[in-house]
């Protein structure tokens, strides 16, 4: 029973008979949500503090990282645990190029992505023979070894002191604050989002997923499995490296401590909790988990227990991720 | 380098390496039995090990239980706890039909929860130990010296491994575990209760970790972060082939010795990265490890 | 439309508005005529929480005391507290939240050096004054920044130089074994140690290990084989205890000196190492004014017990570094007082630069200068036999100075 707001009389709650109307409502409300989010995103710097924009910038970087992880694990089914290493390569490359040559931001980001991508290519090559747990363990070991290199190659990376870089600049404009960097970070992140959707619906995406489902079947239909796997690694690493370059837009310091296994795991959980295999899942997972992580900082005593508890509960009861609740992928 | 110094370094490095290696071997064993029977890479292994140490510490130092009661109590408690985790959480995760990585993430969740609980008790901030049950003193073998505690650790670890292998190879329950490890469906067909075996294996894995923790805590001191040795245990398991139990044990000793030899002959800075380099080299050039069979193709 | 009533009404409105305008006209954020907002931050959770949890509590109890005594020039201190989890990203988030969201007047925080350095660029750019808690944070203090002050415990440069000086002058060492970590801390203390060794014309044999090391056989065996006269241990607590144990096992009887960051809890140290014989030749560096448990520092521990009775009854509280919060809070309060009732950030910074006082808690004075941003540089040395500590007389100063790299 519902109340008629005009007459205040009770009215029978009749079911909507037309499914067409239901779908239309869904699309309208989905579209309204997207528009609302878009407006919010654009208006944000004008209505909140630099701190909130800093968090937004970090979330955008994590979104790109998450999309990269999605490509290698979600699309291609390759269990790669060296994400933080590629991210770190991107940050150091972009930062060092900026310090040395003062190149514009976009070039630094691309360079960061390329260096990481090349490394990813090599890793992809070496890992052709490995499956599942062995692949996971060797990429994990590679990630740890890279962190050790970041920490000990002091002349280049600053070693345990960390590395300071000059503020990034683009078209003569220098980014000196989070709010200044935000529009660029947002636009670039959206470019990656769009690219990922394009890849998802393209032949490449279908090849990735074919390899994920069954390498033998994929080979049977003429897919060059080796090439696809190597490319998945390289592309994913490119994303991570570019995310690193993006990080230098609003941050001028990096320490190897932030580039370890826990960062890779954070990104992995974003993808899994968001919904593995789903592009919007990866994006949603990045934003939700990034926010959870920052919010938990306000609950110092129990945050680790809460965080672990959330992970366990998700894995038990929402295995396909948050975004499985929201209809089709 | 003079020959005398070289010889000293080798002997001491190997001797001490065998002691810490025996602990890595136990932890690697715990990881491998779980992986073989439940297909889960247990990333919470280090935290189970750490939490066991603190539980024992709590019983001995705070509740003042005598050592000889506290130790079995701890091992038993961890055994129960680990089996329950498998039964309650992991079977649910597996039944929920997500992806296999979900199981690993569930173990990661467990590791955070355990670490958080230990930190919340306030015992974690300063390194701790148990009162030593061994007298002081050491034994000299050639140029190397090992304390009585060292020998106890090594001896106890080897004894545990021996008991375990005996159980695994000569008892009915061991046979059931091996059957599940070989082929899950087939073992169910011959009447083995899969759920029970999996629970038992997790419990056993927890118990082994607890024993390892209690043995090594007086030597390496407990902190809330002591679980990081799990990466060394994974390295050991990989060297062994990740599905071979004797391989895990040999791998543990190899890692322990390698740590010392790298520290002595390369640089102390490199000690930390050595296991990762080993993992990569083994997996690239010898993916089946030293003892593993052919790399099994799981998916078709 | 102008009427005869307009001037009166306008005046009334203006008077009303001026009541609200007064705070709004304050140029400085976090400041009202009756309050000063201070952003307190440090590790409240995570693996390194023992470096800062009780340090923050100590600062807080000191501020409570000042408030109870009437505040500073009529203003009471209000605290806005954030957890930095001892890592770079979270520290930056904490700082940005405090400065931009909570609009604090000044920052008082940071117990973890590597993380603190991450906040440097933002704080310099925003101009907010920042007095650290117990972080050494050499990387943020050299070269000196206008608004960043730190090393209230001791800078790592001062620590490294001082411990080498002790080894040379007190223990007559010609060849010194030095074990430190391969992290930022380690790099800073090593720099000063090497400088001091060179200046004293002695050899320094260095072994750098990872804080997570399990088997210390390798570095110790090497140093013993190198025949060092003294072993300086500049690691964190757990590795330091392992080193003492292993040194004893390997029959190393030369003097061993534990740097201040190597000591978490002296009683635990003794218990964990196990044997009293291991302490035949062990010295401890301390940056507090006197040995722990002494009369001099009793007031700090008593104040902690009264302020936090629940915490004080839990095991391991107060945590070891608790007293370090006092000199930092004292410095904040003194600078606020010296800056006068007409308070601005600029005046506060000028007053901070001129600080030079004895906190009664630390081994040396808290002193800054036009180009000096590290507060405390002195340390004392105690001989520790496993149970008792005896003060070794003498001052052993680090001679490292910033070379303008």
TrEMBL record, chain A:
<keyword id="KW-0472">Membrane</keyword>
<feature type="transmembrane region" description="Helical">
    <location>
        <begin position="230"/>
        <end position="253"/>
    </location>
</feature>
<feature type="transmembrane region" description="Helical">
    <location>
        <begin position="53"/>
        <end position="72"/>
    </location>
</feature>
<dbReference type="InterPro" id="IPR043428">
    <property type="entry name" value="LivM-like"/>
</dbReference>
<dbReference type="InterPro" id="IPR001851">
    <property type="entry name" value="ABC_transp_permease"/>
</dbReference>
<dbReference type="Pfam" id="PF02653">
    <property type="entry name" value="BPD_transp_2"/>
</dbReference>
<feature type="transmembrane region" description="Helical">
    <location>
        <begin position="133"/>
        <end position="151"/>
    </location>
</feature>
<dbReference type="GO" id="GO:0015658">
    <property type="term" value="F:branched-chain amino acid transmembrane transporter activity"/>
</dbReference>
<feature type="transmembrane region" description="Helical">
    <location>
        <begin position="265"/>
        <end position="293"/>
    </location>
</feature>
<keyword id="KW-0812">Transmembrane</keyword>
<protein>
    <submittedName>
        <fullName>Branched-chain amino acid ABC transporter permease</fullName>
    </submittedName>
</protein>
<feature type="transmembrane region" description="Helical">
    <location>
        <begin position="27"/>
        <end position="47"/>
    </location>
</feature>
<dbReference type="GO" id="GO:0005886">
    <property type="term" value="C:plasma membrane"/>
</dbReference>
<feature type="transmembrane region" description="Helical">
    <location>
        <begin position="180"/>
        <end position="202"/>
    </location>
</feature>
<feature type="transmembrane region" description="Helical">
    <location>
        <begin position="107"/>
        <end position="126"/>
    </location>
</feature>
TrEMBL record, chain B:
<protein>
    <submittedName>
        <fullName>Branched-chain amino acid ABC transporter permease</fullName>
    </submittedName>
</protein>
<keyword id="KW-0812">Transmembrane</keyword>
<feature type="transmembrane region" description="Helical">
    <location>
        <begin position="228"/>
        <end position="258"/>
    </location>
</feature>
<keyword id="KW-1003">Cell membrane</keyword>
<dbReference type="GO" id="GO:0022857">
    <property type="term" value="F:transmembrane transporter activity"/>
</dbReference>
<comment type="similarity">
    <text>Belongs to the binding-protein-dependent transport system permease family. LivHM subfamily.</text>
</comment>
<keyword id="KW-0472">Membrane</keyword>
<keyword id="KW-0029">Amino-acid transport</keyword>
<feature type="transmembrane region" description="Helical">
    <location>
        <begin position="55"/>
        <end position="82"/>
    </location>
</feature>
<feature type="transmembrane region" description="Helical">
    <location>
        <begin position="148"/>
        <end position="168"/>
    </location>
</feature>
<feature type="transmembrane region" description="Helical">
    <location>
        <begin position="189"/>
        <end position="216"/>
    </location>
</feature>
<dbReference type="GO" id="GO:0005886">
    <property type="term" value="C:plasma membrane"/>
</dbReference>
<feature type="transmembrane region" description="Helical">
    <location>
        <begin position="270"/>
        <end position="291"/>
    </location>
</feature>
<feature type="transmembrane region" description="Helical">
    <location>
        <begin position="94"/>
        <end position="114"/>
    </location>
</feature>
<keyword id="KW-1133">Transmembrane helix</keyword>
UniProtKB/TrEMBL annotation, chain C:
<feature type="domain" description="Leucine-binding protein">
    <location>
        <begin position="35"/>
        <end position="383"/>
    </location>
</feature>
<comment type="similarity">
    <text>Belongs to the leucine-binding protein family.</text>
</comment>
<dbReference type="GO" id="GO:0006865">
    <property type="term" value="P:amino acid transport"/>
</dbReference>
<keyword id="KW-0029">Amino-acid transport</keyword>
<dbReference type="Pfam" id="PF13458">
    <property type="entry name" value="Peripla_BP_6"/>
</dbReference>
<keyword id="KW-0813">Transport</keyword>
<dbReference type="InterPro" id="IPR028082">
    <property type="entry name" value="Peripla_BP_I"/>
</dbReference>
<feature type="signal peptide">
    <location>
        <begin position="1"/>
        <end position="26"/>
    </location>
</feature>
<dbReference type="InterPro" id="IPR028081">
    <property type="entry name" value="Leu-bd"/>
</dbReference>
<keyword id="KW-0732">Signal</keyword>
<dbReference type="InterPro" id="IPR006311">
    <property type="entry name" value="TAT_signal"/>
</dbReference>
<protein>
    <submittedName>
        <fullName>Branched-chain amino acid-binding protein</fullName>
    </submittedName>
</protein>
<dbReference type="InterPro" id="IPR000709">
    <property type="entry name" value="Leu_Ile_Val-bd"/>
</dbReference>
């Amino acid at each position: 029973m519902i109340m008629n707001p005009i007459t205040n009389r009770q009215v029978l709650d009749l079911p909507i008979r037309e499914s067409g109307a239901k779908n239309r409502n869904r699309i309208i409300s989905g579209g309204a949500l997207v528009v609302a989010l878009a407006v919010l995103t654009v208006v944000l710097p004008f209505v909140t503090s630099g701190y909130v924009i800093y968090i937004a910038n970090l979330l955008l970087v994590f979104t790109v990282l998450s999309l990269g992880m999605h490509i290698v694990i979600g699309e291609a089914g390759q269990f790669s645990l060296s994400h933080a290493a590629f991210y770190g390569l991107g940050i150091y490359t972009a930062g060092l190029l900026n310090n040395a040559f003062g190149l514009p931001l976009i070039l630094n980001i691309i360079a960061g992505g390329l260096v990481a991508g090349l490394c990813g290519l090599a890793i992809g090559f070496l890992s052709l023979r490995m499956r599942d747990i062995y692949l996971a363990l060797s990429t994990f070991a590679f990630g740890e070894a890279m962190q050790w290199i970041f920490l000990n190659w002091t002349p280049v990376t600053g070693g345990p002191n960390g590395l300071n870089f000059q503020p990034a600049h683009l078209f003569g404009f220098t980014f000196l604050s989070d709010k200044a960097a935000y529009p660029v970070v947002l636009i670039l992140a959206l470019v990656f989002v769009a690219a990922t959707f394009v890849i998802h619906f393209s032949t490449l995406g279908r090849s990735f997923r074919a390899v994920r489902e069954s390498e033998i079947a994929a080979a049977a239909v003429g897919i060059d499995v080796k090439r696809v796997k190597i490319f998945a690694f390289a592309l994913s690493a490119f994303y991570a490296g570019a995310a690193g370059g993006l990080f230098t837009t609003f941050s001028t310091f990096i320490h190897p401590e932030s580039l370890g296994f826990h960062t890779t795991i954070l990104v992995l959980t974003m993808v899994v909790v968001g919904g593995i295999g789903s592009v919007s899942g990866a994006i949603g997972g990045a934003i939700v988990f990034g926010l959870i992580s920052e919010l938990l900082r306000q609950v110092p005593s129990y945050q680790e227990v809460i965080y672990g508890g959330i992970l366990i509960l998700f894995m038990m009861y929402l295995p396909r991720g948050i975004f499985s609740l929201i209809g089709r992928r | 380098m003079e020959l005398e110094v070289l010889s000293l370094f080798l002997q001491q490095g190997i001797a001490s390496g065998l002691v810490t290696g025996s602990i890595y071997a136990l932890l690697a064993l715990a990881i491998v039995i779980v992986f073989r029977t439940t297909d889960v890479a247990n990333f919470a292994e280090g935290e189970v090990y750490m939490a066991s140490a603190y539980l024992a510490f709590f019983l001995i130092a705070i509740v003042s239980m005598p050592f000889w009661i506290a130790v079995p109590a701890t091992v038993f408690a961890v055994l129960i706890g680990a089996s329950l985790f498998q039964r309650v959480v992991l079977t649910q995760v597996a039944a929920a039909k997500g992806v296999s990585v979900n199981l690993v993430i569930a173990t990661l969740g467990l590791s955070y929860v355990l670490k958080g609980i230990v930190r919340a008790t306030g015992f974690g901030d300063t390194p701790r130990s148990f009162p030593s049950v061994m007298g002081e003193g050491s034994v000299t073998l050639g140029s190397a010296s090992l304390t009585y505690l060292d020998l106890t650790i090594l001896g106890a670890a080897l004894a545990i491994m021996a008991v375990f292998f005996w159980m695994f190879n000569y008892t009915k329950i061991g046979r059931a575990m091996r059957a599940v490890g070989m082929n899950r469906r087939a073992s169910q067909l011959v009447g083995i209760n899969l759920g029970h075996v999996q629970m038992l294996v997790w419990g056993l894995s927890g118990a082994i970790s607890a024993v390892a923790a209690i043995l090594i805590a007086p030597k390496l001191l407990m902190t809330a972060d002591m679980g990081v040795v799990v990466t060394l245990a994974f390295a050991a398991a990989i060297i062994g082939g990740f599905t071979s139990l004797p391989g895990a044990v040999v791998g543990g000793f190899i890692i322990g010795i390698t740590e010392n030899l790298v520290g002595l002959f390369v640089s102390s800075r490199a000690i930390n990265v050595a296991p990762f380099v080993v993992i990569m080299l083994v997996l690239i050039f010898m993916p089946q490890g030293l003892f593993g069979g052919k790399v099994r193709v799981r998916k078709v | 439309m102008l009427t005869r009533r307009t001037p009166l009404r306008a005046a009334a409105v203006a008077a009303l508005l001026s009541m609200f305008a007064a705070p709004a006209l304050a140029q400085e954020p976090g400041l009202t005529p009756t309050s000063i907002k201070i952003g307190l931050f440090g590790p409240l959770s995570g693996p390194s929480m023992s470096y800062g949890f009780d340090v923050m509590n100590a600062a807080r109890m000191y501020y409570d005391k000042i408030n109870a005594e009437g505040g500073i020039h009529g203003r009471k201190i209000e605290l806005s507290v954030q957890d930095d989890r001892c890592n770079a990203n979270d520290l930056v988030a904490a700082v940005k939240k405090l400065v931009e969201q909570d609009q604090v007047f000044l920052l008082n925080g940071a117990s973890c050096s590597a993380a603190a350095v991450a906040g440097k660029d933002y704080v310099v750019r925003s101009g907010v004054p920042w007095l650290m808690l117990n972080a050494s944070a050499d990387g943020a203090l050299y070269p000196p920044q206008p608004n960043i002050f730190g090393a209230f415990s001791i800078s790592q440069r001062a620590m490294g130089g001082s411990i080498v000086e002790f080894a040379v002058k007190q223990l007559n060492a010609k060849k010194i074994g030095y074990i430190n970590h391969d992290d930022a801390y380690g790099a800073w203390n090593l720099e000063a140690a090497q400088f001091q060794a060179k200046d004293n014309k002695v050899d320094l044999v260095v072994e750098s290990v990872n804080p997570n090391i399990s088997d210390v056989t390798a570095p110790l065996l090497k140093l013993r084989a190198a025949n060092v006269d003294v072993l300086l241990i500049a690691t964190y607590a757990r590795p330091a205890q392992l080193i003492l144990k292993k040194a004893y096992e390997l029959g190393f009887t030369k003097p061993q000196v534990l740097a201040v960051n190597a000591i978490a809890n002296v009683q635990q140290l003794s218990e964990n190492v196990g044997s009293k014989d291991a302490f035949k030749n062990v010295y401890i560096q301390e940056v507090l004014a006197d040995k722990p448990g002494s009369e001099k520092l009793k007031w700090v521990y008593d104040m902690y017990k009264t302020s936090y009775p629940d915490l004080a009854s839990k095991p391991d509280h107060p945590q070891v570094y608790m007293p370090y919060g006092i000199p930092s809070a004292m410095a904040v309060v003194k600078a606020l007082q010296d800056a006068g009732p007409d308070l601005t950030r600029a005046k506060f910074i000028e007053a901070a630069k001129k600080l030079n006082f004895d906190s009664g808690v630390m081994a040396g004075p808290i002193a800054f200068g036009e180009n000096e941003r590290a507060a405390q540089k002195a340390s004392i040395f105690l001989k520790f036999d496993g149970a008792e500590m005896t003060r070794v007389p003498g001052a052993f100063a680090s001679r490292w100075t910033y070379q303008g790299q």
